[in-house]
Amino acid sequence: MSKDSDTALNPANKTLASVISCLSDYDPDALPVADAQAIIRQLIEPINAVEKIALRSALDRVLAADIVSPINVPSHDNSAMDGYAFHGKELNKDSDLSLKVIGTAFAGRAFDGTVGSGACVRIMTGAIMPGGCDTVIPQEYVLGANAAGDSAITIPAGAVKTGDNRRLKGEDLKVGTPALQKGKILRPADLGLLASLGIGEVPVQRRLRVAFFSTGDELRSIGETLDEGCVYDSNRYTLYGMLTRLGCDVVDMGVIKDDPAVLEAAFRTACENADAIITSGGVSVGEADYTKQMMAQLGDVGFWKIGMRPGRPMAFGKIASNGKQAYLFGLPGNPVAVMVTFYFLARQALLHMMGASAVAAPPLMRVVSKAAIRKRPGRTEYQRGILSRNSAGIQEVSITGSQGSGVLRSMSEANCMVVLEHDRADVKAGDLVDVILFEGLI
Ligand code: AMP
Ligand code: MG
Predict the structure, then answer these.
(1) How far apart are CA 169 and CA 158, in angstroms?
(2) Which of 62, 277, 351, 402 could cross-link with 359 by S-S, CB 3.0 to 4.6 Å?
(3) What is the pLDDT of residues 75-113, one digit of tens each?
(4) CA of 290 to the centre of ligand 2 (A)
């Protein structure tokens, strides 16, 4: 792994204590999700390191500068239809209009004559409007023309109005106006939009480097013998997937043994080579291992019991090693808890570090709960759901089987997360609940 100078975070930045002091009733042993999110949000600072890359490579990257349109798109008034271009002022609402066809305008090959009164030009979609023409009649509305293009056409009364079927110069983007704003995550439409401006290279924030490892002596890696009482390490794979989807550079450091020297070396290596570290396991109350101890020793880390289910225990803060700092997310060990704490606590923070501006949490949709759901007030619950449309076309959600925090199958089968808010009590069949979809169009 290389050591880049931009890995080090600004040493003058905030401490956990200074952020927490702003909260009136901070209790690390009963922290509402919203408070945990707020603390994380305030401690995190964007990395701000820019690189210029080719347009295609910029997909899913964070735009690092505002893009102002260097040209008008489209560059000229042009036709939105295949048809005939003419002067709208010749239209008379009570009578048909007959026009002589005096030429053809193709996309990319303009008609350069003048169109006088009583005349029109056959025009293709995207062709520049001939001088003075402001209206296009689609060819299928015209009487008297055939495919070869008759020398005269008749426009039935009332078929079009002045200005119809004409795309105006600059109607998509006007020269000098903002096209895309810094901080936007570039989606396929944005690549196309940049291409429409002729921009082939884009300034983006460099990728966030995130190191992650699993802790727990019971963990085995794929390929190792599964000794009695052991489990295969699945968290590194879900984390790999979630971080990769987010566009991070991932550094998978494997399973780290519960040995102070080994743990210290792992934390230091991660800290010196990554912007953020994500660990799983070893942060619950009564953990016999050294993970928490090492986190506390190397940095400014809070150990929380969050009012959420799954995912109660979590560590968050910054650690330092040899003059470098990295944010630390110590996620719980249970496989579903790892995913839920990642999605609802780490994800937004990583996006903020990546320089993504005002990233709203994924939209919540209110849908009908098919069945009753048990829910205790005083914690946010994230249940795994399957959203479907009933015969009346209404969206309904049902919970996937067992909601145990170790049951990864519940995540795999689900297509959404049901978010039951902090103060909510039991849900009755037919009540409305919030869901977040796992997949969207983009
Ligand atoms: P912990 O938070 O370390 O107490 O772990 C809680 C539960 O999650 C235990 O049953 C662990 O065996 C399990 N667990 C911890 N880490 C992993 C992992 N990387 N993959 C799968 N299960 C894990
Ligand atoms: Mg453990």
Answers:
(1) 26
(2) 351
(3) 999 999 999 999 999 999 899 999 999 999 999 999 999
(4) 10
Residue among 212, 215, 217, 219 whose CB has most ligand 1 atoms within 8 A, to mutate: 219
Q: How far, in Å, is the centroid of ligand 1 from the Cα of 214?
A: 8
Distance from C-alpha of 349 to C-alpha of 384, rounded to nearest angstrom? 23
Strands (E) across 157-288 are located at 166-167, 178-180, 201-205, 209-215, 219-220, 231-232, 249-256, 276-280
Closest by alpha carbon to 5, among 251, 268, 265, 324?
324
- The first and second tokens of residue 356, run together, are 């993504």
* Residue type at position 91: L
Q: Which ranges constitute the DSSP H helices of 246-392?
A: 260-273, 291-298, 335-341, 347-353
- Give SS3 for 303: strand
Please give the number of the atom of ligand 1 that sits closest to the Cα of 280: 16
Q: What is the pLDDT of residues 16-75, one digit of tens each?
A: 999 998 888 899 999 999 999 999 999 999 999 999 999 999 999 999 999 999 999 999
Strand, helix or coil for residue 346: helix
What is d(CA 40, CA 111) in angstroms, rounded to the nearest whole number?
Answer: 61
Instruction: Please name the residue whose Cα sits nearest to atom 15 of ligand 1.
Output: 333
The pTM of the full predicted model, rounded to 2 decimals, is: 0.90
Closest ligand by atom to 334 CA: 1
